[in-house]
Amino acid sequence: MKMDEECRQLFADVEAYLDGELDDHACRRLEQHAAACATCAREVEHLRRTIGMCRKAGQAQLPDDVRARARAAVRRLLA
Fold it and tell me: How confident is the model at residue 1, as a pLDDT?
């Protein structure tokens, strides 16, 4: 992925943007840039999807046998 200096500066804030932690001005700036820059728009969308998948995975219920094995492994590590 080839980014110019403006892309690199804005991309440094993309994590905060996706987490809803940027102020309104910084959000608008990033959104306007991504609307005009296909490379940044694509990268923001890829990150948005990745973060969404990670959040979903963190909420998934593990089968009882997997949880039991994980607990046993942690107990062995702590012993």
Answer: 57
Residue type, 72: A
Maximum Cα–Cα distance across the chain: 56
Q: Which amino acid is at 38?
A: A
pLDDT score of 65: 93
DSSP result, 10-74 = HHTTHHHHHTT-S-HHHHHHHHHHHHH-HHHHHHHHHHHHHHHHHHHHHHPPPPHHHHHHHHHHH
Q: Which of 42, 31, 47, 37 is nearest to 7 (CA)?
A: 37
Q: What is the pTM of this model?
A: 0.62
The pLDDT of 2-21, averaged and rounded, is: 84
CATH number, domain 5-78: 1.10.10
